[in-house]
Design brief:
The radius of gyration is 35 Å and the shape is elongated. Among the domains are: 176 residues, no CATH class; 62 residues, no CATH class. It is built from 32 helices and 2 strands. The mean pLDDT is 84. The longest helix has 32 residues. By secondary structure, the protein is mainly alpha-helical. Strands 1-2 form a two-stranded antiparallel ribbon. InterPro entries: CPA3_Na-H_Antiporter_A, MrpA_C/MbhD, MrpA_C/MbhE, ND/Mrp_TM, Proton_antipo_N. This is DUF4040 domain-containing protein. It comes from Haloferula rosea.
Length: 775
């Protein structure tokens, strides 16, 4: 199996899913589950191979892609394969959960196509080695998430949130593409692997592409100030929230920062930006999450805090900080996806996600209660869970790191205890105390909906206990890749009673105290209202863009053909003139002397001027039409004299047919009249004169440019050996330019048929109308 095969198979399943699910839900479930399981095992095997140190990262490429700009190339590095395992592993649980979540609902038939297409896009994003290919998958994740967030399209708020996520992440993606192309132009390659090799060889990238790439990563991972789209995306169904907005899509920016970390590490300003914006994002998620009462909204804001913490640790950039970042990311993928699925299960069973209306569910949902509590303990960092391992290394890094790390330790402590309190609010409050629901009103849950929370709760415990054996090689290889140099790493579950462990105990105790003493009542505080101003600014910009575009459209697209032509000609003159000015007004070489032009062609100049003047000034449509016809015939005469009889004949026939047709049309119309004021006519004269002058200068310039040897002698040499014809003109028309000649014949034929049909219809309409009576 190749790295790209799971991507293609998942896309194929996405295409077939609407019909397959409607035809047989059972076989779709079985085949989809087996497909995900196979992909997970394949990527696990690849990850084990590259993490063991014996095998180099796998690079695969193919030439079948239809464009030279994009290389269909993939690279299985430890960092990318780690994400591929998370995507396929959690994707398997989300797939099963979604089948149980929707049941036999008609909505399910249109849900799995964008979900599976998103999964394939995420796999392509993390495995692509070509940066432009990565951008294509990057934008595909934005497009598919647009459909998933706006899945309940009857809801106007869901449509607005989907558009908001698409615009923010899409614009960031365009900025990222610009950075990719700039960096590719600078180094002569678009490969991420080659870029890392350039850094290892001592090359330094420019600052501008790094800023643009970082901007794309920050928008995708909802880093401050682009944080507000993520909580709003909770209008999506819960399977979407558990997959896109906890474990995969929102970590795409984190993946990109890690994949290109050696490039970013060349700029202290870039790393400093990550530290500052990551810290603000972490604090923002905590402040806004504290005032929420919706389970999914609370989880969304805690995701913001984790994303901010990951950006902060990547910005610090030391091996210890990178190790802590990878462990925190793995732990978060496990417990957050499970908690989202648990929140959706509670909503399905109880009919609400408001923590103020939930309680006592442990009696009717005992399995969900236990798994949710285990997931919350992992999020809180309770031993021996994977969350505890990550938090221990965060604290250990703070105690043993530089002064900045020690200063951040207090900040990270505050974030962690707040996250623990919010985790308990989500996973403990709905099950504790007395039941608040009407007896018998809690629905039974589908077994498929329970598989995800239970499996991830168990996985968090197993990975925590066996982290020294299972995660040491994987995390070590990923950290070495991010750091750009080999890093010796050994993960330990128990470090003894040290300051980091004592701070973990203080976090647990303080988090429990905070949870007990300060429950949320859903009232936004001053800080929450202030942070809401960023979304208000987005809405202000959006409304301004819509109003501005409406005003511009009403002015430009006003239904007046003359206005369209004026804007078009003005734009052409402006663009060509600007290019000419930027080129330093290159000299125009005139053709040979006047004595080389026959007198009959000189005589055509005043004649053409007279007939053009008649065309412009006459009030008779017939005179204007005939004058234009004379101009066309004169041009055909020039073509004939210059040795292009085929073009002359085509132009002559088309002019004749056109005159006949328009004579028939304008026969009964009134005389021409001036419908434009003098000022507009002056503008028309200036535009017409400018276009005429521009085309003349371009024609002279083109005539003087010879980029290749003339082909005329070559065609004469080819005439007899290749086409067996001694008449070069005939051979060119019927052999070398056969399709062009056929096109000219088709043009003439269509013109003739059109004139004939219009003439026939006009005569028929005249006969069908009663004769007009003059009063």
């Amino acid at each position: 199996m190749s790295l790209d095969l799971p991507i293609l198979l998942t896309l194929l399943l996405a295409v077939a899913s609407p019909w397959w699910f409607a035809a047989s839900r059972t076989t779709f479930l079985i085949v989809g589950g087996l497909l995900h399981g196979g992909h997970l095992l394949y990527y696990l095997g690849q990850l084990a191979a590259v993490s063991g140190g014996g095998d180099a990262p796998v690079r695969q490429s193919s030439e079948w892609f239809p464009t030279d700009l994009i290389a269909w190339s993939f690279s299985g590095t430890p960092w990318s394969l780690l994400f591929a395992v998370m995507i396929t592993g959690i994707g398997l649980l989300i797939f099963l959960y979604a089948v149980g979540y929707f049941g036999s609902s008609a909505k399910a038939s249109r849900f799995f196509a964008p979900l599976l297409a998103f999964e394939a896009a995420m796999l392509g994003l993390v495995l692509a080695d070509d940066s432009v290919l990565l951008f294509l998958f990057w934008e595909l994740t934005s497009i598919t998430s647009f459909f998933l967030i706006g899945f309940n399209h009857e809801d106007g708020k869901a449509r607005w949130n989907a558009l908001q996520a698409l615009l923010i992440t899409g614009l960031g993606g365009v900025a990222m593409l610009a950075g990719f192309l700039m960096l590719g132009s600078e180094w002569g390659t678009l490969s991420l692997t080659d870029w890392r090799a350039e850094i290892a060889a001592g090359s330094l990238p420019s600052m501008a592409p790094l800023i643009l790439i970082l901007l794309g990563a920050m928008t995708k991972s909802a880093v401050f100030p682009f944080f507000f789209w993520l909580p709003n995306a909770m209008s999506a169904p819960t399977p979407v929230s558990g997959f896109l907005h906890s474990a995969t899509m929102v970590k795409a920016g984190i993946y990109l920062i890690g994949a290109l970390h050696p490039l970013f590490a060349t700029s202290p300003a870039i790393l400093g930006t990550l530290v500052v914006t990551g810290s603000i994002t972490a604090l923002t998620g905590l402040i806004l999450g504290w005032v929420q009462t919706d389970l999914k909204k609370i989880l969304a804001y805690t995701t913001l805090s984790i994303l901010g913490m990951l950006a902060l640790l990547l910005g610090l950039g030391t091996p210890e900080a990178l190790k802590a970042a990878v462990l925190v990311m793995l732990g978060h993928a496990c417990y957050k996806a499970g908690l989202f699925m648990a929140a959706g299960a509670i909503d399905k069973a109880a009919g609400t996600r408001d923590v103020r209306e939930l309680g006592g569910l442990r009696a009717v949902l005992p399995v969900l209660a236990v798994s949710s509590f285990v997931l919350a303990l992992s999020k809180a960092g309770f031993p021996p869970s994977l969350g505890f391992v990550g938090k221990e290394y965060v604290y250990k890094f703070g105690f043993g790191g530089p002064v900045l790390a020690q200063a951040l330790l207090v900040f990270l402590f505050i974030i962690n205890l707040g996250l623990m309190a919010l985790a308990l609010r989500v996973a403990f409050t709905p099950f504790r105390g007395e039941a608040k629901m009407v007896p018998g009103s809690v629905k039974k849950l589908n077994g498929l909906m329970m598989a995800g929370p239970v499996a991830l709760a168990v996985a968090g415990l197993v990975l925590g206990v066996l982290s020294p054996q299972l995660l040491t090689p994987v995390v070590g290889a990923a950290v070495s890749q991010i750091h750009g140099a080999p890093v010796d790493l050994v993960i330990k579950l128990w470090h003894g009673v040290n300051p980091a462990f004592l701070l973990s105990l203080a976090t647990l105790a303080s988090g429990w105290f905070l949870y007990q003493k300060w429950p949320s009542h859903g009232n936004p505080n001053l800080a929450a209202r202030a942070l809401g101003g960023f979304e208000s600014f987005y809405k202000l910009c959006f409304d301004g863009l819509m109003k501005g575009s409406s005003m511009l459209t009403s002015h430009l697209q006003n239904g007046d053909l003359r206005s369209y032509l004026r804007w078009f000609f003005a734009a052409v003159l402006l663009l060509v003139g600007a290019k000419w000015w930027m080129s330093g007004f290159p000299a125009i070489s005139l053709p040979g002397g006047a004595d080389e032009v026959p007198w009959i062609e000189w005589a055509l100049v005043p004649a053409l001027a007279v007939f053009l003047w008649v065309t412009v000034t006459t009030s008779s449509r017939i005179f204007a039409l005939l004058s234009l016809a004379v101009v066309g015939l004169a041009i055909a005469f020039v073509f004939a004299r210059l040795g292009a009889p085929d073009v002359a004949l085509t132009l002559l026939l088309v002019e004749t047919f056109t005159v006949i047709l328009f004579m028939r049309i304008v026969g009964g119309l009134p005389q021409l009249r001036n419908i434009a004021p003098p000022r507009e006519r002056l503008l028309d004269i200036l535009l017409a004169g400018g276009m005429g002058l521009m085309m003349t200068l371009l024609a002279l310039k083109v005539a003087a440019v010879q980029t290749h040897p003339s082909i005329s002698n070559t065609l004469a040499d080819w005439s007899y050996p290749l086409a067996k014809g001694k008449n070069v003109v005939n051979v060119i028309l019927v052999d070398f330019r056969a399709l062009d000649t056929l096109g000219e014949i088709v043009v003439v034929t269509i013109a003739a048929v059109g004139v004939r049909l219009l003439w026939k219809n006009s005569r028929a309409s005249e006969k069908s109308q009663p004769p007009s009576q003059t009063p």
